[in-house]
C-alpha cells in the first residue's frame, strides 16, 4: 500500500505575533501603574464621595479583564466573519451614537453629550465608530467592483464619514471628528484613490474647519495653544501645567508616585494628561520607552499587511494599526503643546473603558490577521476533497 503525505492546512501551523501581544501587555501594565500613581491621593472632596486610593485602579483592572475577554473573542473571529458584520456594525455604531441624546440614557459632562449610561460605568460610542469605520472601509475597498479611479467610489465612504461627523459635532466632539476624517482619508489614499479627489475634498473642508474653530470655546483653545501664558489661570492652565510636569521630570524623573503636578495642579491626570505625569515621574527615559512601544506596535501592525492573503486583511490591518497610532500621536502632540487641546485619551495607558475595550478588540483582530490566514473557502474545500480522495484510493485501491 502506497504512503500518502497529507500536507496540513497552513493555518494549523500558523502562529500569532507574540511581540504584538507582549507590547500591548506592557503598555497596559504601564497604564495600570500610572493610573494608580495619579489617583492614589485621597482629597477631602473625594473622601466625601467614598472614593478610596484604589477606586480608579480597581475599576481599571475590571475593565482590563473585560478587555482581555473581548480581545480573545476578536482573535477567534475569522476575517470572513468580520467582513460580514461590517455594515451591521456601522449601523449599530450610528444607532448608539444617536442614543447619547436620549434623556436617561445619554450622559452629559462638561457641556458635552458623548456617553451612554451602562453598568457599571459609561460607554463612549465614538470609540466604537472608529473601529466600525475601519472594518467598513476595509470591506468596501476590497470589493471586486471597487475602483479607485471613479468619483462614485470616493463619495460613498465620504458620505458615511460625514454622517458620523455631523453627530460628533452635535455632541460636540471635534477631536473625534478630526481623527475620523484623517483615518478615512488615509485609508482611501492607501487604496490608490485619485489625489485630485482627496485634495479637492481637503480644500473644500478647510472653510468648514475654520468656521468650526471660530466657535468661542474652540478659539480659546487655539489662542491658548499659541500663547498659553496670556491666560494662565483660564484656557492656558492645562497646557502650562503639562509643560511644568514634563519639564520637572528631567532625564530620570522625580520618581514613581512623587509627582507634584498631580496634587491639584494638572487636571485630568489619569485620562487626557496622563502622559504628562509619566514625563514628570519617569522622566525622558520613561516617556521615550512608552513612545518607542507605540512605535513598535505600529510597525508590527503595518508588517501584518505583508502577511495578508487578500485585500480585506491588507486594508484592515493597516486601518487598525493607524487607528491606534493616530490616537496616541494626537495625545502626545496635545500634552507637549504641538496642537491645540483635544479630549483624546492615550491608548492602553489612560483611564477610560471605552477606548481600552475598543483598542483591545483591535489588537485581537490584528493578532488573528498576523497568522496570515485567508478566507479562501472554495479553494480550501476543493483541496480537502482532493486529499480525502487520495486517502481513500490509498486504502481501498483505485476504482475499477
Textual characterization of the structure:
- With about 400 residues, the protein is mostly helical.
- It has one domain (about 10-395).
- It has helices at about 20-40, 45-50, 55-75, 80-85, 85-100, 125-140, 150-170, 175-190, 195-215, 215-225, 235-250, 275-305, 310-335, 355-370, 375-395, and strands at about 105-110, 110-120, 120-125.
- A hairpin with a 2-residue loop joins β1 and β2 (about 110-120).
- The chain starts with 17 loop residues before the first helix and ends with a helix.
- The relative contact order is 0.15.
Alpha carbon gap, first and last residue:
17 Å
Indicate the overall shape.
globular
Helix content: 55-70%
* Alpha-carbon Rg, integer: 24 Å
| DSSP helical segment count | 15
- The string of secondary-structure elements, in order, is HHHHHEEEHHHHHHHHHH
Q: Largest beta sheet, briefly?
A: 3 strands, antiparallel
Overall SS class: mainly alpha
Mean pLDDT: 87
* Strand count: 3
Amino acid at each position: 500500500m502506497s504512503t500518502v503525505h497529507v500536507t496540513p492546512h497552513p493555518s494549523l501551523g500558523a502562529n500569532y505575533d507574540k511581540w504584538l501581544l507582549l507590547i500591548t501587555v506592557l503598555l497596559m501594565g504601564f497604564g495600570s501603574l500610572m493610573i494608580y500613581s495619579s489617583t492614589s491621593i485621597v482629597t477631602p472632596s473625594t473622601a466625601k464621595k467614598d472614593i478610596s486610593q484604589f477606586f480608579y485602579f480597581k475599576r481599571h483592572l475590571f475593565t482590563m479583564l473585560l478587555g482581555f475577554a473581548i480581545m480573545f473573542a476578536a482573535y477567534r473571529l475569522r476575517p470572513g466573519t468580520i467582513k460580514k458584520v461590517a455594515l451591521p456594525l456601522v449601523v449599530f455604531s450610528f444607532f448608539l451614537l444617536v442614543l447619547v441624546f436620549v434623556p436617561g440614557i445619554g450622559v452629559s459632562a462638561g457641556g458635552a453629550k458623548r456617553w451612554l449610561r451602562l453598568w457599571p460605568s459609561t460607554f463612549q460610542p465614538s470609540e466604537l465608530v472608529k473601529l466600525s469605520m475601519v472594518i467598513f472601509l476595509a470591506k468596501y475597498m476590497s470589493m471586486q467592483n471597487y475602483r479607485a479611479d471613479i468619483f462614485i467610489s470616493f463619495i460613498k465612504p465620504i458620505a458615511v464619514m460625514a454622517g458620523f461627523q455631523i453627530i460628533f459635532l452635535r455632541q460636540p466632539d471635534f477631536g473625534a471628528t478630526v481623527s475620523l476624517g484623517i483615518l478615512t482619508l488615509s485609508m482611501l489614499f492607501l487604496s490608490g484613490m485619485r489625489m485630485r479627489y482627496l485634495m479637492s475634498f481637503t480644500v473644500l473642508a478647510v472653510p468648514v474647519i475654520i468656521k468650526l474653530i471660530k466657535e468661542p470655546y474652540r478659539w480659546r483653545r487655539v489662542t491658548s495653544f499659541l500663547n498659553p501664558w496670556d491666560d494662565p489661570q483660564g484656557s492656558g492652565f492645562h497646557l502650562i501645567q503639562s509643560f511644568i510636569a514634563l519639564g520637572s521630570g528631567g532625564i530620570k524623573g522625580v520618581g514613581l508616585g512623587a509627582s507634584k503636578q498631580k496634587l491639584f495642579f494638572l487636571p485630568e491626570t489619569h485620562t487626557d494628561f496622563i502622559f504628562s505625569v509619566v514625563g514628570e515621574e519617569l522622566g525622558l527615559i520613561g516617556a521615550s520607552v512608552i513612545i518607542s512601544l507605540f512605535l513598535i506596535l505600529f510597525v508590527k501592525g503595518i508588517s501584518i499587511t505583508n502577511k495578508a492573503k487578500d485585500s480585506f486583511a491588507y486594508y484592515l490591518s493597516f486601518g487598525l494599526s493607524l487607528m491606534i497610532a493616530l490616537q496616541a500621536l494626537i495625545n502626545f502632540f496635545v500634552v507637549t503643546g504641538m496642537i491645540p487641546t483635544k479630549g483624546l485619551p492615550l491608548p492602553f495607558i489612560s483611564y477610560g473603558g471605552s477606548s481600552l475595550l475598543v483598542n483591545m478588540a483591535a489588537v485581537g483582530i490584528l493578532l488573528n490577521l498576523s497568522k496570515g490566514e485567508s478566507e479562501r473557502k472554495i479553494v480550501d474545500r476543493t483541496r480537502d476533497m482532493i486529499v480525502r480522495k487520495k486517502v481513500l484510493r490509498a486504502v481501498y485501491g483505485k476504482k475499477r
